[in-house]
Prior knowledge:
4 copies of one chain form a homotetramer.
Chain A: E1 2-7, H1 12-22, E2 27-33, H2 42-45, H3 60-63, E3 67-70, H4 77-86, E4 90-93, H5 103-110, E5 123-124, H6 127-135, E6 139-141, H7 145-159, E7 163-172, H8 187-190, E8 195-196, H9 204-214, E9 222-227, E10 234-242, H10 248-259, E11 265-267, E12 283-289, E13 296-302, H11 310-320
Parallel strand pairs in A: 1-2, 1-3, 3-4, 4-6, 5-6, 7-9, 11-12
Antiparallel strand pairs in A: 7-10, 8-9, 10-13, 12-13
Amino acid sequence: xxxVSVLGGVGYAGAIAAQLLYRHPFFKLAHVTARAEAxxxxxxxxxxxxxxLELEIFDVSKHAVDAAVVAYPHGAAAPxxxxxxxxxxxxxxxxxDFRLRDRAIxxxxxxxxxxxxxxxxxxxGLPELTRAQVAGADLVANPGCYxxxxxxxxxxxxxxxxxxxxxxxxxxxxxxAGRAPTHATHFISANENVSPxxxxxxxxxxxxxxxxxxxxxxxxxxxxxxxxxxxQGELVTAYVTPSAELSExxxxxxxxxxxxxxxxxxxxxxxxxxxxxxDTNFCRISWVQDPRTGRIIxxxxxxxxxxxxxxxxxxxxxLMFDRPETExxx
Amino acid sequence: xxxVSVLGGVGYAGAIAAQLLYRHPFFKLAHVTARAEAxxxxxxxxxxxxxxLELEIFDVSKHAVDAAVVAYPHGAAAPxxxxxxxxxxxxxxxxxDFRLRDRAIxxxxxxxxxxxxxxxxxxxGLPELTRAQVAGADLVANPGCYxxxxxxxxxxxxxxxxxxxxxxxxxxxxxxAGRAPTHATHFISANENVSPxxxxxxxxxxxxxxxxxxxxxxxxxxxxxxxxxxxQGELVTAYVTPSAELSExxxxxxxxxxxxxxxxxxxxxxxxxxxxxxDTNFCRISWVQDPRTGRIIxxxxxxxxxxxxxxxxxxxxxLMFDRPETExxx
Amino acid sequence: xxxVSVLGGVGYAGAIAAQLLYRHPFFKLAHVTARAEAxxxxxxxxxxxxxxLELEIFDVSKHAVDAAVVAYPHGAAAPxxxxxxxxxxxxxxxxxDFRLRDRAIxxxxxxxxxxxxxxxxxxxGLPELTRAQVAGADLVANPGCYxxxxxxxxxxxxxxxxxxxxxxxxxxxxxxAGRAPTHATHFISANENVSPxxxxxxxxxxxxxxxxxxxxxxxxxxxxxxxxxxxQGELVTAYVTPSAELSExxxxxxxxxxxxxxxxxxxxxxxxxxxxxxDTNFCRISWVQDPRTGRIIxxxxxxxxxxxxxxxxxxxxxLMFDRPETExxx
Amino acid sequence: xxxVSVLGGVGYAGAIAAQLLYRHPFFKLAHVTARAEAxxxxxxxxxxxxxxLELEIFDVSKHAVDAAVVAYPHGAAAPxxxxxxxxxxxxxxxxxDFRLRDRAIxxxxxxxxxxxxxxxxxxxGLPELTRAQVAGADLVANPGCYxxxxxxxxxxxxxxxxxxxxxxxxxxxxxxAGRAPTHATHFISANENVSPxxxxxxxxxxxxxxxxxxxxxxxxxxxxxxxxxxxQGELVTAYVTPSAELSExxxxxxxxxxxxxxxxxxxxxxxxxxxxxxDTNFCRISWVQDPRTGRIIxxxxxxxxxxxxxxxxxxxxxLMFDRPETExxx
Lengths: 330, 330, 330, 330
């Protein structure tokens, strides 16, 4: 039996990670931590989890069990990950602290890294693209929600070396903004509204660029996120100017080659909607060629809290501990 | 006193046009027509209008008064516009039947035109761009909702001749899909969802291309609409690859030159949201330069039923009858 | 292995029943039927089910397997239930056709019964109240959504004989109105709105009265439903004028005696919200005494499509086939 | 010209009061105050107001003009109202500080009153019921949102002396909870949810009881509010046990006598919905008799921020300054 702690279990993603692990056939959810809510039960704070565990204040001597899912904010995650790793705990980190590989870029977007000795040591945990590395990893950097959707949508084109240019227009539900009450997340601000945000640069931009580069597509991208009046769900619409002409059949083959055997990718023709992947680890992808401009327009839909965070963390844990990749996720 | 009929007054846009004209200081709302709902009062079908008129079956001998707003579906509008024009009635047509100037393009996207003798005779009624022609017009083709937002956002760049390429990602509330109950407009389908639609080509694409061409930007565009879970509101995010380098100051000047004196255009810096222009004739525009790619990203927000349809029709009527352009709209 | 057919699998409740049975450890989902959508796969019509079965036109010779969940409209259900029963199939019927025991009341509210020979032979399948009878039943009438919430909330008081009078104010999400597109279920009608409906009498009224009577509380009730802008979820607020004075402790004991060991009833203190039981078979109940009037106010929250329909059907199937009552439902 | 200050102009109700007064034909909006947002323009904080005034820190020497609308929280309002009154300014106060007439009840529900010398001197400003007193008043206590809807719905019955007992089930949009970001008003908490709140007693209960008493119905009531996932709108469903039998005709006459000539009350038959009075000063009322219990069920719908607060304040100002009651409100 493998014991797992979830650190930061009252955030939306942490709570779902705890919920999935509590019902997982292999892992045992040993601890869930939270600071302000310590002493309460997780199912009182988040009834839908139905996890009757009492929230505890993090204490490495107690919570460094076999594995941990760290659901702390960027910056706060790094030092606690370092503590856990020093204690031998294998970690899936939901923050951005171990996703980037260029220290200057990290510091520029997130501020000075708090555990520099570990910087760059995380395996980027997008199993459909990095399955082999995740399998043996001790520290997995769980991808950002937008990068998950964007990279899965673009990977077949990136690997084929045909992305000449790309604009990524992304749309997310309000849970992506986190659980802290703010004017932006107030019902009255978000409801009946749609607006772009972080229009001068969103931190997921360098992450997408880095991983596109790993796939062979080294180019600057345009990425623009928008906030929508719904709870969970993220749709990426990626406008690709191909660097070479591609027939319909060639595109079909590229996507089939990448995803026909993937358990969590659903290739579709026609529009995809985020409701169709709600509360799941699935990513739905479709694409269309625009005959008037030659562009390839790729649609990619996920649940930002599941495939974009918590369930993908469990998918990574499954791989790290040599379990069936879909265990506990279907 | 100038009498106006609204034809098709139970559609969302027709009802708002009636509501605005009923309270207009100059125009007199003389008739509102509807077929299935004839005999009912408009304020029973659409309480928010608070227009206590009885809906009538259209009869040109009765309803061809000084002016008419025609809120019929595409195809159905043309013959009735022809009838009205033959009777001397000045018309603002909300359909697409008189927007396009290339007959082949119209027939290709909408089917054979039903009043070919009038084809191409409508003045495109986007006052911020075509004010002078609207002023003397007898037949004004009210722009589509997406073209209104897209063209207002892009016009300063188009007129300056600096649009090298453009991708238009558009997001609309459900009222844009019309009042007929369908699976797509069912609450359960639209709520908590976002998806693209008409991914193989939306009819507003040639309309936007045509009017960009009038402004000097002749190029094929990529246009992709998305359906959002909200009532009214439309956000266009336009990604422009400039054909020439533009400084921040030059961009500021382009937009100021176009819009600083426009009563219904609100230039902003930072994100714009559709809730801020809800139930108004305003269009909010902001833009940002993406330093990593050089792209100019333009945001343009309107209420699809107001500036995108009904209130713009009244703005056009004001111009046609030599009234202050903002009369009845502030 | 016990094979189950779901008849009417494209309605919201039928689709969820199919989804639950497809993943059930004991039952095998053998067939899902639908008329207009026959030939399509259920997961194309309802992606969230992820049931890859092809929808078939109902044919009793093929679909009368061990058991069936019938998700037909009232009136349409009775004859097909009769066919299934004649073939020896055990049935859970989601319609009202076998819930009532007084034929005159049925005919008055629903029209003439279509399988009179079977009328009154259904066991009312609210396991928390009728578990013993469901266990051996061949025909179970699955309760209506409102009766489920109302009866669970009121049963402890009804059994104690202390309901002097009761007003039931009920609030439901839009899925309760069914999948057919209508003006009432159009996004624009339901969103940002709340209104009562069926104000001259809702069919669930006699059903609640009948079952309260079974519990010992024979009295006319006031029941008023309201439509809310959300997908799934039903909240019943029941205002009980007690016929005898009850102390706080006595009330605590009444509810504990009824529900402390129930796997699907969650007794709470404080407000309950429908989101907390979304997509589950749970019913959350709390109550408060109003010191100024002596009233007992009971809150009862369910998911109308789950505990109010589909998952309760599976709970009933579990009992009918002597399986653990929670199997496939946690 | 009569100058008006709005104090507390960044709350939802204060902002709408400013918006209405800025466009009012008679009043001049002289000042809008706010503490944290001082120096910003109101239309930057609340774009929909389109009031380009700069928010100022309250200073009685500057802002005690002819009249003031005070939109402060309970408790904070009383001392500033006292200052304004001392300076001769006529006041409409949106808080509860001057609504109650029994000091013990006020202190019990709100804490010790902060301007006891003025306690009880406010005229209760529900024009349909207290028009004559408002006309000459210097200090008007604007009713709470729930009392406005409940009292308008019940007044004809209360005046006729036929209310034997009443249960008031009330449902409100999220704006009623105010603009401060909290867990309860977070989009993720409120969306797709409905729950009761303040189940141990809501402060509007004694206010409703007091004013029912003024109308002749002295009785304890049961009042229970619920939070709904929508922006603005409040529906009261009042279940009245009549103390005498009333025919349909008698009820029609009672309601007609009270409201047939009221400009802001819309008597309807059939269901009423809050969307129908959104952004207006109207109250829609309908009722139905429950033949099985004899109860009269009254439905009353308002916009909680308009008729429930800001527009009713303007209606009161119109009366105080001898203007047409509907001026600036249609």
